[in-house]
Design brief:
This protein is of the alpha+beta class. It contains 40 helices and 21 strands. A hairpin with a 2-residue loop joins strand 5 and strand 6. It is globular.
Length: 958
């Protein structure tokens, strides 16, 4: 019986994508598959492309390996990724037999692999000796170069990339890739780090120590010999590693990282033995794309298996051996014989470093620690204040969000620069701390002990030819050992620096730091896990479906997972439209986190009592805080807000004055008129304009009465049998009363011209009409329909209509909006204002208007659709789909016609993807099958996919 491979998770599939574009394209192909199946480790299917013949796609899950008949040169291609996504979603059935084309390819792969495995591989002693001679010669050259560097002085040495690359290339020729890699990392450290002299001296000392050990390779213990060979770069064949005694345990996966260097992808997976308490590191490589084997369990899962460790003095890297069970999730940590404290972790690191002095890092599991951010940098701290520094450059805001000031278990890698967090274990789950976004900038603290070797670094900068190190400044044990070192100053400096580095790293004392006050609990229900994963992905992609997601989530009042809070706050900073729902979803944990981040602090106002708000925020707060405080008070008590603003009005200055006055628009009433009238005399023009705009919304105010009188004096009607003439009598100059009411000569804003010159009178007329209540014109011109048909002098027709549009929008008058819209006002040059008028019409009227327009009016339809809300009414949705299908049929008949392709309508298609009812997905799929044009078929398939995505998005929130 064939053993079926269990479906992978979506995260495992997305990790295989060679780039983001391939993954995005793969998601769009989900609905275009047929004849898919899985049998054992074989997965196959046919995907319909632009041609008549579908692409045959095969995945060998044991590799994984991929084959597709498409012309793509990416591995895996978008078709293979799409097939894997369908399989991960449970949409591929298990069948009893493998398809012929898949069985043929997979069988060929198995035959080639078997032939290779049967071929014996034995090491040639002569070849091994030749390599060792070549390595030894290269290392001796490198040692001479290292001595010259510190003898001359690092400050005067050539620190360019070209200089280091030349030496690294020599190491590659000498077959010492480990040292070549170390040399190639140095130019980056020199260019990016202020403490580069310390880093360079430390690396030079490490290399010198490795070269010295290589000279004694035959006389050291076998384990240490293996470590030396590994750090130099001698190969370790997998067959030899698998010959090592296996270590069986239930291995828990605590972290995984994928890096890329010149198209070579490397995956590092950290495992921890549940019984042995032993660390293991599985390293996989893949060239060209991250197509790694799927034999590693997912994060937060464990497998009963054997591991074969690479030989070494402090063995860590391992290969998978025999599996004894399928992977299963773990929700607890093993009961430790001794507590996983900082002191214990440092002791374990010191033991590993003592065994292998060239170790760069060592994994740590720290239980019951709290991440904290101080002026000196980031730390993880225990309850008694014992702390370890986090590596400079790390910004573990997600770790801080997950902790919330409460103890958690942190898994990380400890190195000379500090702790690099990998994951955090809390509430029975492992949270990956992979850095997907950079949340602001951080000042870095100095690495622990970096000042202790300052004298050695100074000597290295100047050169041993100019200065000798002061051994008395070193620790006594280091000074005694240094006195017994070779007499050559350069060699003595390098070996003393190596001793100093190992002494500081192995004997590091923990720091101290205070834990922050913990965040308050949030009693709201948690966001479902599937919905949280989708939201995170949508935020990364800046999805157009986010507004609908938040509208659907609002009634449930969910709280986001703690790990998502940092991402929510970062998007709240840049997305003002969704800021309120983003912050509401982040909740109490988000507020706590924002208070500790300089870029997020202003997003969230900390809760306070009413007396504190009155005494502090209103009197001494910053402008945004004072405006928000007044707006909140206005919503709760309009009279109290008006009284507070009236009392503070004489002392208010600057742009904030107009912003505070604009707060009165909420719950505006007659009682606000005295303050607004007083604001008409303010010295600031923006304050006067704000006051005039608010007074115009009070139909019984003295301001509107003055505007009625002014309109009567400027504009009158002459009614005739067949039509009405509008007669205008405009003053040559504005009196002081008109200027006080906001009527100004704003020719630049309105840009009316007559006889080639700016028309000041037209601008004045528009302002008067806009500020006059629309009810006034009923007694002058009749109904809105009669008013728009009146005859007006060509010079002033546009200003009058523009004023009516301003008034209709400000006063939200649907009758006037209907009349002005039907009259074609404003023109197509002002489509945004025309859309605003259209939005004031009742929804049935808007729907009826759009469904009356045929395909020749697509631009008009597209311009007015934003006023139709969400989702579109069913009748409108059907009409839009029908019009698009007509375009598709036209494209099939005459494909060369300009504007017939879907690209010509991509904005309309994008709007349809967002606003069509999700129930229309089936209709769109049926329409796609009836399309004879391949491009339009793909466009309708994409629309159906987007609607299915939205449907799943909404279902996950239930």
């Amino acid at each position: 019986m064939t053993t079926q491979t269990a479906p992978w998770t979506e995260d495992q599939v997305t990790a295989l994508a060679p780039d983001a574009n391939s993954l995005s394209a793969a998601r769009k192909l989900v609905s275009r598959w047929r004849e898919c199946g899985q049998h054992g480790t074989a997965l196959w299917g046919q995907c319909q492309g632009s041609g008549a013949t579908p692409y045959q796609t095969i995945v060998d899950l044991s590799g994984p390996a991929y084959r597709c008949s498409c012309p793509s040169r990416k591995f895996p291609c978008k078709h293979a990724l799409s097939l894997l996504l369908r399989w991960a979603a449970g949409e591929v059935a298990v069948v009893p037999e493998t398809a012929d084309y898949a069985a043929s390819w997979i069988g060929g792969r198995a035959a080639r692999a078997s032939a290779t495995a049967d071929r014996p591989r034995t090491a040639n002693p002569a070849t091994a000796e030749q390599r060792r001679v070549r390595v030894t010669a290269g290392l001796e050259e490198l040692d001479v170069w290292l001595g010259d560097q510190v003898r001359t002085g690092l400050a005067q040495a050539d620190r360019s990339y070209r200089a280091f690359e030349a030496v690294a290339a020599r190491m590659v020729d000498a077959q010492a890739p480990g040292l070549a890699s170390a040399l190639r990392r140095l130019p980056v450290a020199i260019a990016t780090r202020t403490d580069w002299p310390d880093v360079v001296l430390r690396e030079y000392a490490r290399m010198h120590l490795l070269i010295a050990a290589h000279r004694q390779l035959d006389s050291v213990a076998p384990a240490l010999r293996a470590s030396i060979r590994t750090h130099v770069g001698y190969p370790s064949p997998a067959e030899a590693v698998r010959a090592e005694p296996p270590a069986r345990d239930r291995w828990m996966v605590f972290g995984s990282r994928i890096t890329e260097d010149e198209r070579l992808y490397t995956r590092r997976t950290w495992l921890y033995g549940r019984e042995s308490r032993r660390w293991a590191l599985v390293v996989d490589h893949s060239f060209g794309s991250p197509g790694f084997p799927a034999d590693v369990p997912a994060l937060g899962r464990m497998a009963d298996a054997q591991l074969h460790f690479y030989p070494g003095a402090a063995p860590l890297r391992a290969l998978w051996g025999e599996r004894h069970s399928a992977a299963e999730p773990f929700t607890t940590l093993p009961a430790a014989d001794s507590p996983a404290t900082i002191a214990a972790a440092l002791t374990a690191h010191a033991s590993a470093l003592g065994a292998d002095p060239w170790l760069r890092s060592w994994p740590m599991l720290l239980a019951d620690v709290v991440p904290t951010r101080t002026e000196q940098g980031w730390y993880v701290t225990e309850s008694d204040g014992t702390a370890l520094p986090i590596r400079p450059g790390e910004q573990p805001w997600t770790l801080l969000a997950v902790s919330g000031g409460h103890p958690v278990t942190v898994i990380g890698e400890w190195s000379a620069d500090g702790l690099e967090p990998i994951s955090v274990f809390t509430a029975g789950a492992v949270v990956d701390l992979v850095r997907t976004e950079v949340f602001g900038s951080e000042a870095s603290h100095s690495p622990a002990g970096s000042t202790s070797g300052a004298d050695l670094t100074s000597v290295a900068l100047l050169g041993t030819a100019r200065r000798a190190p002061d051994l008395a400044a070193l620790a006594p044990s280091i000074a005694r050992a240094a006195n017994r070192l070779p007499s050559d100053p350069a060699v003595r400096l390098l070996e003393t620096a190596a001793l100093q580095d190992l002494f500081l790293r192995g004997g590091l004392e923990p720091a101290t730091a205070a834990a922050p006050e913990p965040a308050a609990d949030d009693p709201r229900p948690p966001l479902p896990r599937a919905a949280a994963a989708r939201l995170s992905r949508m935020l990364r992609e800046r999805s157009a479906f986010l507004p609908e997601w938040f509208d659907a989530a609002r009634p449930h009042d969910y709280r986001a997972p703690d790990a998502l809070c940092a991402q929510l706050l970062e998007h709240a900073k840049i997305n003002a439209t969704l800021r309120e729902p983003l912050l509401r979803l982040a909740g109490a944990r988000g507020s706590w986190l924002a208070a500790r981040h300089p870029d997020w602090r202003d997003l969230v106002r900390q809760p306070s009592t009413a007396s504190e708000r009155s005494a502090d925020t209103w009197l001494f707060g910053r402008p945004p805080e004072r405006r928000d405080w007044l707006a909140e008070l206005r919503r709760d008590d309009a009279g109290a807000a008006r009284a507070a603003l009236t009392a503070a009005w004489p002392k208010e200055t600057g742009p904030l004055k107009a912003e505070l006055l604009a707060v009165l628009a909420d719950r505006l009433g007659p009682d606000d008129e005295p303050l607004l009238e007083a604001a008409l005399d303010d010295r600031r023009a923006d304050v006067r304009r704000t006051a005039a705009g608010l007074l115009a919304l009070l139909p019984e105010s003295a301001f509107t009465q003055r505007m009625r009188e002014r309109a009567n004096a400027w504009i009158r009607a002459e009614h005739r049998m067949l039509h009405t003439n509008v007669l205008l009598t405009l003053p040559d100059t504005l009196d002081a009363a008109a200027q006080r009411d906001g009527i100004t000569d704003r020719t630049t804003e309105f840009a009316y011209r007559w006889n080639g010159a700016p028309d000041v009178s037209a601008a004045r007329l528009r302002q008067v009409v806009a500020a006059t209540p629309l009810a006034h014109w009923a007694g002058v011109l009749g109904t809105p329909q009669q008013a728009v048909r009146a005859t007006i002098d060509d010079r002033f027709r546009q200003p009058v209509f523009d004023g009516w549009v301003d008034a209709a929008l400000a006063q939200r008058d649907s009758a006037w909006a209907r009349a002005l819209f039907d009259a074609g006002v404003p023109t197509d040059l002002a489509m945004l204002r025309r859309r605003e008028l259209f939005a004031l019409l009742p929804l049935p009227d808007r729907t009826a208007h759009l469904t009356r327009l045929d395909g020749s009016w697509l631009s008009e339809i597209e311009a007015l659709l934003p006023a139709m809300g969400h989702p579109w009414p069913e009748a409108l949705a059907q009409h839009v789909v029908l019009l698009l299908f007509e375009r598709a049929r036209a494209a099939a008949r005459r494909p060369e016609t300009h504007g017939a392709a879907p690209n010509a309508h991509r904005s309309l298609l994008a709007a349809a993807a967002v606003h069509l009812p999700v129930a229309a997905a089936g209709t769109l799929t049926a329409v796609a099958r009836r399309c004879d044009d391949p491009a339009w078929e793909r466009a309708f398939d994409q629309l159906a996919h987007d609607l299915n995505h939205r449907s799943m998005m909404l279902e996950e929130l239930q």
